[in-house]
Design goal:
With about 375 residues, this protein is of the alpha/beta class. The protein contains 7 helices and 20 strands. Strand 3, helix 3 and strand 4 form a beta-alpha-beta unit. The longest helix has 15 residues.
């Protein structure tokens, strides 16, 4: 897209690979003072199976790594669905990719809390799920290299406002930023990455987050972030769910009697308002991607680290880490799909068949024939459509 003159972006030449000190642990009160934090630890001793090269003196780019829905195990109503080794190993297959990114993101599908009462599911409910991950799991997310999570989704309120507050406190203590906990001061997280201020905004269709169905307020929120940051990333939780929800319709999607957004309309509107990257999740399957005004829109990153509660097979068990390279103005200049499979109850395994690549490429061409990116067989994403 044409960069507006009021964006205030200044080209920065980066010399050498820059690694920053780890985030200082804080309390919920420190989050309320701005939800900003320090960048990553020195990770030069870590290697990755296949991520693209990190920052180099000749390449002034910012590398984002993103995964979809994360729910590492819930002890509600009992411990039957808790992972082995307390879930410490679930994210290890993707850790090298996350740790070599300048900013690593995922959607946290449920609260972090060690107790509480859920009023979500009634005793007679047959298709209702209330998740609650132990607060200690925040440290596992941090160890995997995650810098920021969206908490704007349909499970954010599984344990009410107390669960949301507990989630913020646990993430703050672990040094992980959060976006979308409400529609105000907790809606947006800010970072300093390689000399640039990056904003991450969380949208969903629940009663507390910025709502994907309200395009006017969505644009306003992005415009505000755009005035305060050099690069704006929008995360949204929306769309129908399941194997029949792989296509992106150009209409408002309704699921379980909930309006879950006209996602093309929403995504393009936030780009028009200043968003530089749009990351979707919610359908529990992968969806296509498009390039709109030089910005990448990924309509669903699918299930990611989901353990114990889902039937994982075929499309719901096919996932990825999306690697995105942005230039200093936020323009999409390249990326890569790292394909994975979810085995058994939810163990991430690299997928040599590249199923995620094939699915995303096919769906992108079907749903966005005029704006789909060029995706190679090994997952390289070219900004040319």
């Amino acid at each position: 897209m044409t960069i507006r003159s009021d964006k205030g972006k200044i080209t920065v030449f980066i010399f050498g690979i820059v690694f920053f000190a780890a985030c200082q642990f804080g309390s919920e009160n420190s989050s309320e003072s701005g939800n900003s934090g320090a960048p990553k630890n020195d990770r030069a001793n870590l290697s990755s199976p296949s991520p693209s090269p990190k920052f180099t003196p000749s390449s002034s780019r910012i590398k984002i790594a993103a995964g979809g829905d994360v729910m590492l195990g819930s002890p509600v109503p009992n411990d039957k669905h808790m992972p082995p080794n307390d879930g410490k190993d679930l994210l290890k297959p993707v850790t090298p990719i996350f740790q070599l990114a300048d900013l690593a993101f995922a959607n946290l599908e449920g609260p972090l809390a060690d107790g509480g009462i859920s009023e979500k599911c009634k005793p007679e409910s047959k298709f209702c799920f209330a998740f609650r991950m132990p607060t200690r799991y925040a440290a596992y997310l941090k160890a995997a290299g995650l810098d920021v999570v969206s908490v704007a989704n349909n499970h954010a309120l599984d344990f009410g406002d107390a669960g949301r507050a507990s989630t913020r406190k646990a993430l703050d203590a672990a040094g992980i930023k959060h976006a979308g906990s409400d529609s105000g001061k907790f809606s947006t997280a800010y970072f300093e990455v390689n000399g640039k201020t990056i904003a991450v905004i969380g949208f969903a269709h629940n009663r507390v987050s910025l709502n994907i169905n309200n395009i006017v307020s969505a644009r306003r929120a992005v415009e505000t972030a755009d005035r305060n940051a050099d690069i704006v990333i929008v995360s949204f939780h929306g769309g129908s769910e399941g194997t029949n929800a792989q296509r992106v319709p150009n209409r408002t999607e309704v699921y379980l009697n909930e309006e879950r957004g006209n996602l093309p309309r929403f995504a393009r509107a936030v780009v028009d308002a200043g968003a530089d990257l749009v990351l979707g999740h919610g359908p529990h399957v992968l969806r296509g991607m498009e390039i709109y005004k030089d910005r990448l829109i990924a309509y669903s990153l699918g299930n990611f680290a989901i353990y114990g509660w889902f039937k994982l097979a075929g499309p719901t068990a096919t996932t990825l880490v999306l690697e995105v390279d942005l230039d200093q103005e936020g323009k999409f200049i390249g990326g890569k799909i790292h394909p994975f499979k979810l085995r058994s109850w939810g163990f991430l395994t690299p997928d040599k068949t590249n199923a995620a690549v094939s699915i995303v490429r096919r769906l992108s061409l079907l749903d966005f024939p005029g704006s789909a990116p060029v995706i190679s067989g090994n997952g390289i994403i070219d900004p040319r459509s």
